[in-house]
Design brief:
It contains 6 helices and no strands. With 160 residues, the chain is mostly helical. It folds into 2 domains: 86 residues, no CATH class; 73 residues, no CATH class. Helices cover 82% and strands 0% of the residues.
Length: 160
Amino acid sequence: MIMFFAGFISGLLGIGSGALKVLGMDWAMNLPMKVSTTTSNFMIGVTAATGSSIYWYLGYIQPFIASATAIGVLIGAMAGTKILVRITNKQVRWIFLAILAFLGMEMLLRGLYLNRMLVVPIATQYTLSLIFTAIVMVVLYYRYGLKAREVVVRRGGVHG
């Protein structure tokens, strides 16, 4: 049911539902963030492979661009698996929050730009999105990150 609403909302917004699926698996199914992100990537891969095979058959895919994309995906996947082993679920969650904050602000600014409600150059939109993300992450860190660290220090969990 949660994945249905994730797909429905992503269809309304015109975005991929990977981010919403990760939130659904994290929140409702109580899965660790590493499991949620890798499961979401697997689901996206299966869906993309099915859709792209139809485009390949119809001749809509240019082999040079597809091969360059495949090489980039392969390099990114290999780097991602090496990094994912070394970081904690909490760090994955913070990275995911930063990406969501950036994409959320970017979507809002782009929507206002396309509707001519806010005429700001694209480079400025990216800059505003980065500033917004930095502010959100600092506020969240001081609100939740430091308190969690203080609790661990009081219980004697952090040494040095």
